[in-house]
Amino acid sequence: KSTPIADELKTIRTVGPVIGYTGCLTSLRLNIPLMEKVASALKNCQFVLVGPEDDDFKKSRLHQLNNVHFTGYKNPDELPQYIKGFDVAFNPQLVNEITMGNYPRKIDEYLAMGKPVVATSTPFMSYFKDQTYLGSTADEYIMLIEKALSDNNESKEKERRMFALQHTWENNVNAIGKLLNNAIKLKENQNYIFRNARN
């Protein structure tokens, strides 16, 4: 709660709700045509894209839209100040071999800040279905962003933060440790049974 909003966003926020993304802007992972359609349709919203761009993003029509803002690369420790200024965070990823099995750590980061999240529906994202708004098409994204803006409240923000707190690196490492210990015990039991069967 003490994290300040990035100065760069303060003026943008006076124009309309901020829909934001943080991360590398690459056409290998993100759906540029969908982003162009959504930003063109939601002219009352300001789209803030925080991160370095690849050549496809630099040539995209997004740069011609008045309500799309590129901040360029930011240090990781600055990102919470940007996310704090988002009214809705989004992750318009492509569905392909690169993204299908990808754990979207940025979703945890958005939720940890209590932000409503609109993201592309993938088999893995179903894990987040109760905490996020999932869609596939530009029309669904438009509807879900509007819904996320109108539905948000302090109670939902708290739920999102509590959910994300389960996914700290410490908790993840502990969970992996438990799985490894269980696998070792299972193997030891199998070896014990096999030895006794031979005797």
Can you describe this structure?
- By secondary structure, the protein is α/β, with parallel strands linked by helices.
- Helix content is 47%, strand content 13%.
- The protein has a six-stranded parallel beta sheet, sandwiched between helices.
- Helix 2 packs across helix 6.
- The longest helix is centred in the C-terminal third of the chain and has 30 residues, at 169-198.
- The model has no long low-confidence stretch (mean pLDDT 91).
Number of helices: 8
How large a portion of the residues is in β-strands, by DSSP E?
Answer: 5-15%
What proportion of the residues is helical, as a percent range?
40-55%
Radius of gyration: 21 Å
- Principal-axes geometry comes out as elongated
* Category from helices, strands and their pairing: alpha/beta
Spans of at least 5 consecutive residues whose pLDDT stays below 50 are none
- The spatial strand order of the largest sheet comes to 3-2-1-4-5-6
Arithmetic mean of pLDDT: 91
Per DSSP E runs of 2 or more residues, the count of β-strands stands at 6
Instruction: Report, as a whole number of angstroms, the end-to-end distance.
Output: 65 Å
The SSE string, one letter per element, is HEHEHEHEHEEHHH
Strand count, sense and closure of the main sheet? Answer: 6 strands, parallel
